[in-house]
Amino acid sequence: MKLKKLAAAVLATAMLVLTAATVSADSIFDTAKNIDSGKKVSKTLSDDQSMSYKITPTEKGTATVKVTAKTNYFKFYVYDKDGNDVGYDEDIKQGWTTAGSHYWDSKTECYIGTFSFDVKANKTYYVQIKRGSFQKGSGKFEASFKYPSEEVEEVVLMTLNLKKGDTVQLGANGDNASWTTSKKSVATVSDSGLVTAVKKGKTVITLKCGSKKQEIEIVVE
Q: How far apart are CA 71 and CA 137, in angstroms?
């Protein structure tokens, strides 16, 4: 009986450890924001706070994230959509260097470094930067993202005038079409392109299909 209880306790402990190991990936899935290649973001983090972003390369190659941080300790994570670590789970501390790619400048109290990792076409990756506890500096982070991506062609098609409660079905050619609206409070759009007018105002419905992007302005009267 004691052996059974001991085995059960060991199993419970193992399950707790496994759960703890997936917390970082889960938090990335919950908070990550889409970011296009070539874009730069800036955010000030308090101790133990993080910033998370989602990228979807359209071609196979290498993704890079250049980080400038006003702090001397943070962590950099990269996960795939299944929560697997794809190359980084790295502590960056004052005075550490890796292959000369990042460094801490004690005069300006600023860390500058570039992280690189391999990516596959049309796969989603999650990047998280997390500041450590009880650290020096203002905690301001700047991150520039660059990854293999086709240049998106933008085309404004038309303006549609609707009344509150009206619906209109928009169409698209292609299997990977996705629809978004700039203001859900004015008009919503479903995954199939069905637009529903909610209240007076203007919004832009965007269709992305491969390397093309088309926009339709919706005016709710």
A: 5
